[in-house]
Amino acid sequence: SALFDEELVQDIYRRVSPAVVVVKSDLQFGDTYGQLAIGSGFLVDADGHIATNYHVIRGADRVVLDFQDGASAEAEILGPSPSNDLALLKVDAALVAHIEPVELGNSSLASTGQMAIAIGSPFGLGGTVTIGVIGGIDRVLGSDIARPMHGNLQTDALTNPGGSGGPLLNGTGQVVGLNTAVRIGPVDLDSTGASRPVGFALPVNTLVRLLPRLKAGQAIERHSRRSG
User: Fold this and answer.
1) How far is CA 193 from CA 158, 163, 187, 196, in A?
2) How far is CA 139 from CA 17, 152, 153, 181, in A?
3) Whether 144 is catalytic
4) pLDDT digits (tens, 9 = 90+) for 34-78
5) Mean pLDDT of the residues in the chain
6) What is the DSSP letter of 102?
């Protein structure tokens, strides 16, 4: 028997993936740019606002988004929240007029064992989908930017470098988190190699709560404890 409902996953992917973008952060060197980081993001409304992780765009002189339909555009960085590892980007609304924004869910309703679907750009491979379950809730995630963040979702839906900032979806296609970090165990040379990575996602409720301030361009320095 199938490990998951293939038609369900394919339907969710068709609906959501056009709203997921590759986020490329660049540093300027004179008249040229060099790549600083690569990650993922997703369209949250018809006005052209795109959410991602702060660590994806931290220190960037330029942020360029690649869309699934082949379009590219330079994005404006609006309100960042370093302590929550969130950032909001903005492109012209006309550029995304044909794209359906994601549906933001309620991360407080997420529970262990529920289906988890990650869409992102691991290693720059845009439109990649992986499937797993929510392996735990209210996990503490360390940060090199701020104090540890609470309330994160743990998942075995595979996330690799470049997937940060992409959406973690539930079985109805709603976003419940932003894929943010991966923890990999030590390599065991006597068996099959490295252990299976464990992924962590910031709860989408934090993004929902901060969106009005981020859209207004406010820099939010203090960590939001009510992660939910």
Assistant:
1) 17, 22, 5, 9
2) 27, 5, 6, 12
3) no
4) 999 999 999 999 999 999 999 999 999 999 999 999 999 999 999
5) 87
6) P
Distance CA(70)–CA(75), nearest Å, equals 16
Supply the pTM of this predicted model: 0.87
Whole-angstrom Cα distance, residue 103 to residue 204? Answer: 11
Which of 40, 55, 107, 121 is the catalytic position? 55
**Which among 164, 223, 224, 227 is annotated as catalytic?**
164
Q: Could you confirm whether 85 is annotated as catalytic?
A: yes
pLDDT at 102 (0 to 100): 98
Locate all alpha helices (DSSP H) within 24-176, ordered by sequence. Answer: 54-57
User: Which residues neighbour 139 within 8 Å (Cβ) at sequence distance 6 or greater?
Assistant: 151, 152, 153, 154, 200
Three-state helix/strand/coil letters over 21-39: EEEEEEEEECCEEEEEEEE
Encoded tokens for 17? 């993936």
**3-class DSSP state of 128:** strand
Helix (H, G, I), strand (E, B), or coil: what is residue 176? strand
**Predicted confidence (pLDDT) per residue in 141-163, tens digit:** 765 555 556 778 999 887 777 88
Tokens of 131: 């499937």
pLDDT of residue 1: 47
Which residue among the candidates 26, 81, 85, 227 is catalytic per the annotation? 85
